Amino acid sequence: MSKTARKLKLNINVLRAVFLCLLIVPLGACKDTVNKNAILYPLTIVNKDKTLKRAAFQVERALTRKEMEIGLMHRKKLAQDSGMIFIYPQPAPMHFWMKNTYIPLDMIFINAENEIIHIYKNAKPHDLTPISSGGFARAALEINAGLSDKYNISVGDHIIFNDYP
């Protein structure tokens, strides 16, 4: 192979590598933010008597098995007023973990009557320890760690979420 042919081949390989990097970097960067294609739904948490608003969030819904498996995995940020709600067709005991999850979370478990039955605070990123719903839950709400304390959210409070399927 001539010197010119080797140079040309090297240049082509360098261009291929640069092109691949340009493709891969934006894909990796997408993991750092909220899913821009997701539809956000309003969710409000009120006290036991439903007379005092504790907090309001814009949440993504996880309804399908695939959405539930992925959840908030691989994300590095979650806006303070955002979250994700996992909605199941029937109430059942639930178990979550933090595999591939970079954001510390508060997990709020909700029964069929929209009442909060358990709050697991400050779930640690990447921890594989099962986190239990503490009873039969129809939904689980994940928000940034510390927000349940900040807004004084407690067991017995209710969610107002009109977008149950």
Characterize the structure shown.
The protein has helices spanning 3-30, 65-70, 147-150; strands at residues 41-46, 53-62, 82-96, 105-110, 116-123, 131-144, 158-160. By secondary structure, the protein is α+β, with helices and mostly antiparallel strands. The protein has two domains: 1-30; 41-160, Protein of unknown function DUF192 (Jelly Rolls), CATH 2.60.120. It has a seven-stranded mixed beta sheet with strand order 5-4-6-3-2-1-7. It is globular, with a radius of gyration of 21 Å. 24% of the residues are buried. The model is unreliable at 10-33 (pLDDT under 50).
Keywords:
single chain, 165 residues, alpha+beta, Jelly Rolls, 2 domains, seven-stranded mixed beta sheet, 7 strands, globular
